Each structure stands twice: as structure tokens, then as C-alpha cells.
Predict the 3D structure of the following.
Amino acid sequence: MSGNMFSPFALPMLMTELATASWETVWHRTALMMTGECTAAEYQRMVTEKMSAMHLASAAMIRGGDATEVLRPFHKRATANARRLRK
């Protein structure tokens, strides 16, 4: 996510980008599953990336981070996946 993280729009923009990237990733992965093209590595990635994001989000919560900091690990992975799967 670009822009000033202290902006009042930071959290709504992060949430919008997260939702959009998540929907796109789900769409691409569903298509891979339906066509039988989803690899074992992609299935493994689905699990490990969420575990990692949850770990980082939990650490942000423990440190007293705001909602933007807590959501950032999910945003980073969702947007990266959407870009990767789009190709």
C-alpha cells in the first residue's frame, strides 16, 4: 500500500486493497482447482502464508499495533498472490 500511513484513509484503503486482492486470489486459485492445475506447492502456500501472516499480525497486536499494522501482513501476501497468479 502506498501513501501516508498516518492518513485517515490508510485503513480504508488497506482494507479495500486487501479485499480486492483476496477476491482475485480466490478466483485464480478456484480456477486452478477446477481445471486440476493447482499444484501441491500452491496448496502448501495457501496454508503456510496464512500461518505466517497470522503470526505477524498476532505480534503486531501484542505490541499494541493499530488495525493497519495488524492487517498489513495479510495485505502484503494477498496483493503479492494476486500479482503472481494474474500472470
Notes: Residues 10-34 form the longest helix (25 residues).
